[in-house]
Amino acid sequence: MSLEEIYTRFCNHPRISTDSRNIVPDSLFFALKGPNFNGNTYADEALEKGAAFAIVDEAEYVSGPKTLLVPDALSCLQKLARHHRRQCQATVIALTGSNGKTTTKELILSVLERSYRTQATQGNLNNHIGVALTLLGLQKQTEMMIVEMGANHQREIAFLCELAEPDFGYITNYGKAHLEGFGGIEGVIKGKSEMYDYLRATGKTIFFNADDPIQREKLQGYDKTIGFSTTDPAHTIIKDLGADPYVKLKVDGNLIETSLSGAYNFSNCAIAVLIGNYFNVPFPEIRMGIESYVPENNRSQLLEVGKLQVLLDAYNANPSSMAAALKHLSGLEQTKKIAILGDMFELGEDAAIEHQSIADLASSLDLESLILVGKAFSRTTTDAHQFESFEELADYLKSHPISGPATVLIKASRGMALERLQDHL
């Protein structure tokens, strides 16, 4: 069946399902495959549960007129997404980077939606399937679309750009994330820069952090750039007023006070200001958009737990974001500072070195106490309290409760689920 024929059906049934356990009524079900499943085997079940059509790529699973056969279901989903994006009039802003993608996306959304009909990636749907689903959710009346792109290997960002065909783009930073898939920090820089490569090749405009030497180097000689800086008058000046405990910034003498903790969130706020300015959002609306944003989902949250002030940043972690969070904690004034750090994943052969480096950094900072948890951190050489599992740490906290007042940083990769510690503090 042709793409145009599939698209006609999508226009009549503009919702997508990819999991037969959660069928959206009157949707198109795409029979995707994974290492341990074959979506084709669930096509009939999807139709029985209310899907309008099932798109399969194995002929033996065609059971009637509501089963549509294509060469490859995933490729069909992606091509359908790009085709739909081309039918819509929205300006697409693409976003990637090692740290801060989702927070930055939400800040930009909070600013732009005050002047435009705006959509953005839902949750963390930022891979080769998630970006396609994001684009297929694009409404015809939408004026601005913010598409978050994640990657853990080379050529992934390039592919996602070819899928979404962004008009603008921004890279939050280059950090030590997914080192295993990218092959080291140089691989990370090359992989994330595929977005700038695409935008340059297509003559599109690039937003950038002019204080980032890597971004400056990558964009040298390209004139379709719009940057922010804390010091360089060649770009929009946005002053960093610190983050104790919340990020504050100043633009043309105007103060913006946020609900975001961590100095590393300054650039996330600054790019939202820059993009709002570029698209002529009135400054009072830009300020309101940023000041009204409250972090959630274990990202840069500042919580009160009894007499403890908890910096909960346990959604994800890598050596770059871990170091930044520790330095922010150490720089806080007039507080007892405690760090509880969990393992960082997807570091490959660099895992032992990177965990030891973080343990050494934490030990060198002005901290009252350091607690490390996880198989990798438990093998580091340090004077810190070390636990191989969450359960061991939880048992320790029962007999050694943390006394306040104090500020406690909780940071780890998602798989550690350290947000559970809130019940043990």
Question: Would you write up a description of this structure?
Answer:
Residues 96-275 form the Mur ligase central domain. InterPro entries: Mur-like_cat_sf, Mur_ligase_C, Mur_ligase_C_dom_sf, Mur_ligase_cen, Mur_ligase_N, MurCDEF_CellWall_CoF430Synth, MurE/MurF_N, UDP-N-AcMur_synth. It is found in: Cytoplasm. The chain has helices spanning 3-12, 43-48, 73-87, 101-112, 130-136, 156-164, 179-182, 185-192, 194-201, 213-218, 266-278, 283-291, 319-331, 351-364, 390-399, and strands spanning 16-17, 28-30, 33-34, 37-38, 53-56, 67-69, 91-96, 118-120, 144-148, 168-171, 205-209, 225-229, 236-237, 239-243, 246-251, 254-261, 301-305, 308-313, 337-342, 369-373, 385-387, 406-411. With 425 residues, it is of the alpha/beta class. It has three domains: 3-76, Udp-n-acetylmuramoylalanyl-d-glutamate--2,6- Diaminopimelate Ligase, Chain: A, domain 1 (3-Layer(aba) Sandwich), CATH 3.40.1390.10; 88-291, Mur-like, catalytic domain (UDP-N-acetylmuramoyl-L-alanine:D-glutamate ligase, 3-Layer(aba) Sandwich); 301-424, Alpha-Beta Complex (Protein-Tyrosine Phosphatase, Chain A), CATH 3.90.190. The longest helix has 15 residues, at 73-87. The N and C termini lie far apart (58 Å).
